[in-house]
Amino acid sequence: MILFNTRFLYPVSAVKLQEEQGLLPAEFLQTVGLLRPFLEKEKAYGEVCTTQVTSPRGRPLVVHYRKTYSRDNGFVVEILDAEVVRPLAKAA
């Protein structure tokens, strides 16, 4: 049995995450670290997928990613975007 390490790429803009979402790079990387076991086992290849996770600071985040496989590179997970889920306004 041959096991390939999963590589993670982060083409998402850290500046955009910080300015638009208020998400600091350290919180983002810790959150992706929490998702790592799930993403390594993910079976959807080539499709852009979305999952929700709670950051270490307790904020709900939506993470968009794509997982691919090639003989040369093995498994690669690209984290395409992340956003903080804003709470819905309560009805009066």
- In terms of quaternary structure, the protein is single chain
Q: Structural class, judged by helices and strands?
A: alpha+beta
Order of helices and strands: EHHEEE
Q: Percent range for helical residues? A: 25-40%
- What's the pLDDT, averaged over the residues? 85
- The radius of gyration over CA amounts to 15 Å
Note the beta-strand portion.
35-45%
Number of helices: 2
Number of strands: 4
Task: State the separation between the terminal residues, measured CA to CA.
Answer: 59 Å
Record the strand order, biggest sheet.
1-4-3-2
Largest sheet composition:
4 strands, mixed
Low-confidence stretches: none
In short:
The protein is α+β, with helices and mostly antiparallel strands and 92 residues long.
SSE layout and pairing:
Blueprint: E1 6-9, H1 14-21, H2 25-41, E2 48-54, E3 60-70, E4 74-84
Parallel strand pairs: 1-4
Antiparallel strand pairs: 2-3, 3-4
Q: Which keywords apply here?
A:
4-stranded mixed beta sheet; 27% helix; 2 helices
Outline the structure in words.
- This protein has 92 residues and is an alpha+beta fold.
- Helix content is 27%, strand content 36%.
- It is built from 2 helices and 4 strands, in the order E-H-H-E-E-E.
- The protein has helices spanning 14-21, 25-41, and strands at 6-9, 48-54, 60-70, 74-84.
- A 4-stranded mixed sheet has the order 1-4-3-2.
- A hairpin with a 5-residue loop joins strand 2 and strand 3 (60-70).
- The longest helix is centred in the middle third of the chain and has 17 residues, at 25-41.
- It starts with 5 loop residues before the first strand and ends in an 8-residue tail after the last strand.
- The model has no long low-confidence stretch (mean pLDDT 85).
